[in-house]
Amino acid sequence: MIAQKYQKMLSGKSAIRELAEFAAKRGEEIGYENVFDYSLGNPSVPVPAEFTQVMIDLLKNEKPAKLHGYSPSLGITSVREKIAQSLNHRFEMNYTKEHIFMTSGAAGALAHALRCVTEPEDEVLTFAPFFPEYHPYVDLTGAELKVVPPSKSDFQINFALFEEMLNEKVAAILINSPNNPSGIVYSTATVKHLADILRQKEKEYGHEIFIISDEPYREILFGGTDAPYISKFYANTLSCYSYSKSLSLPGERIGYVAANPACKDADEIVSICGQISRGIGHNCPPSLIQLAVAEVVDLTCDMSVYERNMKLIYNKLMELGFTCVKPGGTFYIFPKALEEDAKVFCKKALKYDLILVPGDSFGCPGYFRMAYCIETEKVERSLAALEKFVQGEY
Question: 29, 36, 177, 179: least buried by Cβ within 10 Å?
Fold first, then answer.
């Protein structure tokens, strides 16, 4: 018999992926340039030229066994050292290579971090709106994801509800800032308040409560947004990072877990992650990509296009009467739908070749997400379709 828990998941496929597939099929009919596909968060800007050159140089000059052979189970030592050094000078931390574990993107980082600090039947709290895949990420470890309802006026943390949900079973808090899907960024004041509460509860409960900080959008910030590095404010933090967005490398699947050197058992966490890999078949990301990102560890691609796109869409939404919290980063925006049922709203939008994702699976029914990581020219053309949709339906 096949595993029942995975068979049941077939009835709950990702709405994002299903809409992306619909957009691709529609593109075959009318040309994809005429489909205003805001479904999938797939970075649209080119990788830095320096990364491409590093790849060329490595392939020309390094021995194949170094590029294509197995890396150490914790990741390539020199790569871990360079990442630690980068974090230290950027965020005034004191990481060493012993605190860095290389992973297959942020998803791989989260898979390890969650298993490292939870046991079956523990609880993990996260804050709506949240990335829908957090449910399988957490629930399939044997722990249980519990969702704190949102503060819809600003999508910052609803601390009153958060404190109501805190209890002795909570082993970790899973946060995502800058946030997918809302684009908001937790302020320094928010992070400090969260840290104060958790330190108090750690003393009360007699055990650690880890923050698992999901940070793939850390470098996509707009207009001087206050964006604190979470680990600076709370010792028991595991930072989960991906180069998918900062370097436009989602298909290369490269990221890391960074264990705060001040956290409980900091010197063992990375080694424990290596043992977790044995059970989940992770076995390190590709050596070639590890070596390449290490050479451009402080660079990003030109992400100014995302802020440009955000302003175009946000201004148009405001003009059309939508309610929306202005993003401080990422390439997502999360407006309130013009009717109670966002699924119905998004289905109506399909008639205008607008591919929008309802917010139900993000923990916020009545809202919808737009991933504006597309060409600015296409964003500009989509605004007429958005206006036609609103005028025609509402």
Answer: 29
